[in-house]
Amino acid sequence: MRFLRLLVVLAVMVACSRGLxxxxxxxxxxxxxxxxxxxxxxxxxxxxxxxxxxTEEESKRRLGLIVDKIDKDGDERVxxxxxxxxIWYVRTSFVANDTNRIWVHLDHEDGKLSWPNYxxxxxxxxxxxxxxxxxxxxxxRSRVKxxxxxxxxxxxxxxxxxxxxxxxxxxxxxxxxxTKDVLVLEYTDRLDQNNDGKxxxxxxxxxxxxxxxxxxxxxxxxxxxxxxxxxxxxxNGVLDFEEMKEWISPGNYNxxxxxxxxxxxxxxxxxxxxxxxxxxLDSYNIFVGSQALDYGTVLKKHDxx
Length: 305
Fold this sequence. Notes:
two-stranded antiparallel sheet; two-stranded antiparallel ribbon; mainly alpha; single chain
């Protein structure tokens, strides 16, 4: 179970970093936004049903208390900067808490975790020769090799051991400049059907949910081909590492600011580029399903309210 939970954490964070679907549910049903998609993505399957039974009155009451925290200067206007700061705070808190949750279940010594101990705890065995058909990890060799690559990237001092901080970069490589490249390699591996280390246009088109009906639409596929052409900077018909990196982890992209901008765009009814408490409460469904509330879980912490 610990291994499965760790894989879920890794899969979710990797997916978030490149905007992929995080749920088995479709994002749209017959062209309309599927509210249950957001609940499942942001709350998790176990918590989605519980949140859906939270009354609107109680949701708004708790959300109102959070708005007061976001509005640092108390001027009753939540600016994009204030909302960005809050989302960044929630994001970093989640990363720290998530790292702690996993770290306490691992067998580390003197505050450091070894690769053999990590393998034994998460995979049940330690065996470096995973390519051997006789290895107990042979059927998991792709995952082991992928995580070994993450491990080496996260190991800042190259002592083959991970401190808690280094382990954070292992679990959440999107948080470190020295580990972001691992995400590019992992995503390339997932899309690279012909194993040439690059992504062609057909592989690029497959970058959607398996049940996404748009894949059957020729017009949509034409749009994807145009996107591919834009990303293929050198026009050689494939996306290489640097082009993939610009797509998955653009250097000038601030996810917290992007989310804040998105929320203000949808909730700012008077178009003054800021949000009043009333505007936020009127659009509480949007905020419950956003990073601003740690995907809705902040609303469920009774001890804070």
